[in-house]
Amino acid sequence: MKKIITSVVSGIMLLGLGSAHADDDGLGLGLAVNTGTLGHGIQIGKSLTDSLNVRLGMNSISKSENKNIDGIDYKTDLDFSNNSLYLDWHPFEGTFHLTLGYVNSDNELSAHATPSVGTVVGIGSYTHTVASADELVLDGTVKLGSGPYLGLGWGNVPASGFGFSFEAGVVQMGTPDASLAASGTNTTLVNTLYNDGGVNHVAEEEANMQKELDEFEVYPVIALGISYGF
């Protein structure tokens, strides 16, 4: 194990020491395109010193998929839109860098569920077997927050000429905010879900969703990019 760790550390040092400074033969200004867990986007970078760079980025992505949240199958639409500001420190004045930054996001997950006939659905502490089409419709929204970023990577956006980059880190987004609404053709069922002898089962289910989302307080970031420096 010690040999493996030593080899990895040595490799990192060689990667860092073996590359040109950000502004060698150039203006220390660069553009990049990237893709990763924050979406697809562009970045502009500027070298401040031989070992410090600043980057400004924009990323977005939209996708639809099926998700099971607290035992209920939802069709979800994810819309990611992020602006980021990073400060890179290149300890070896090469490609390897440590990064501090902030990701400002406008991210939302919309979830829609229409349980099919015969499906047993648990809404909070209330259990119901769906008897007809569209008698129960659930619509949820999950908002993801903004927060500080900490990461490391290889690449130097302002480096003169073409280059490649890899980045890994985490964003402390905070606990996502979930909301849920129930509707449908069975108005008696819907009214019961909101007020069952003083118990709001929709609010209970919303709280259950919130608990499942607590694990997303820290959001992982992986990104690959291609850059060109001037």
Explain how this protein is built:
The protein is an alpha+beta fold. It has helices spanning 2-17, 187-194, 201-213, and strands at 29-36, 39-47, 52-69, 72-89, 96-105, 107-113, 120-123, 126-129, 137-144, 147-154, 161-172, 177-183, 218-229. Strands 1-2-3-4-5-10-11-13 form an eight-stranded antiparallel beta barrel. Mean pLDDT is 86; it is low at 1-23.
Strand content: over 45%
Task: Give the averaged pLDDT, no decimals.
Answer: 86
Structural class: alpha+beta
**SSE topology string:** HEEEEEEEEEEEEHHE
The percent of residues in helical segments reads: 10-25%
Q: Helix count, per DSSP?
A: 3
What is the makeup of the main sheet? 8 strands, antiparallel, barrel
Write down how many β-strands occur, each being a DSSP E stretch of 2 or more residues: 13
Low-confidence stretches: 1-23
- What is the chains' assembly state? single chain
Radius of gyration: 24 Å
CA-to-CA gap between the ends?
42 Å
Largest sheet, spatial ordering of strands: 1-2-3-4-5-10-11-13
What overall geometry do the principal axes of the alpha carbons give? elongated
List the helices and strands and how they pair.
Blueprint: H1 2-17, E1 29-36, E2 39-47, E3 52-69, E4 72-89, E5 96-105, E6 107-113, E7 120-123, E8 126-129, E9 137-144, E10 147-154, E11 161-172, E12 177-183, H2 187-194, H3 201-213, E13 218-229
Antiparallel strand pairs: 1-2, 1-13, 2-3, 3-4, 4-5, 4-6, 5-10, 6-9, 7-8, 9-12, 10-11, 11-13
